[in-house]
Model the fold of this input.
Amino acid sequence: METKHIHISDYNYDLPDSRIAKIPVSPRDTSKLLVYRHGEISDDIFYNLPKYLPEKSLMVFNNTKVIQARMHFRKETGALIEVFLMEPAAPTDYELMFQTRGECSWLCMVGNLKKWKEGSLVRTFDVAGKIGVFDVYATYYNIDAENDSVTEYKAATATAPAVDAAVGAYPALDQEIYVVGASTKVAKDLKLSAEWLHGKSDIDEWKGDKDGYTVGLAYKGAKAAKAGSWGLYANYFDQPQATYVKHTITGYTALPAWAQVTSTTDATLKNFADGFKGYEVGANYAFAKNIVGTVRYYDLEAREGTAKDVRTLWSEVVFTF
Done:
């Protein structure tokens, strides 16, 4: 077959998340074994492998280790930046590199580099698994701001203009966000999910809340590999500013005047949204293979203060190549 007649889309197939082994089975030798004999395919248990091996067979064991060389970051705007670690630069020895604590250097390939000219990146660390009938996960975000000096921040706020004019005019802050989530099937094709979020800033005097949550319900779901597939979903949000970086939908943010708020009667508090709460409903549909359209409606309001409600109708079509 000539390569010009080979299309990557021909190799797409439906692989439900529930069919992906994310945690090793215990005991390890009770995993499934695929057997191909005399033109027929069957399955067995791995500890039965010896009975399928001819006498005096040569066994070759691969004891190499795989490192997590592909790392995903996000800009504060939400753009995804992928960094692929090619080989260690300092130190150059792999064993020494893996023992290094603190700073080290790698030769890397960077994906989506044109969208990262400057600015800070968000690092995420995921842990996923299953507890009973629940799929659970935990994610840690560490946002390294370009200006992480608390002293400089306070110096800037001390001479800042009026609250409304100051939106977005202050230096960025270092921020940490912890997310713990779980989901479970409550009926056929119907999944219930929830997340708890906790945020931390490098400013001790933060006046806003630090804990938030989301709850979601989803029915089916469009799959890029399956034309005609569709889904419906609804989510409820209650997220203070500390639990997200920049949200493209809400328009709400914790105004820098939080550092001046001393009580609920403070005049500046009326302009302090401290995040958002409200709901989202949406639907998605696969118009054709690798073409999925989504329509979402948001009805959100500020968690605090007198900011106006935000209602947004969002639509998008995603082409997968």
Notes: Helices lie at 94-99, 150-158. DSSP finds two helices and 14 strands in the chain. The two ends are 21 Å apart (CA to CA).
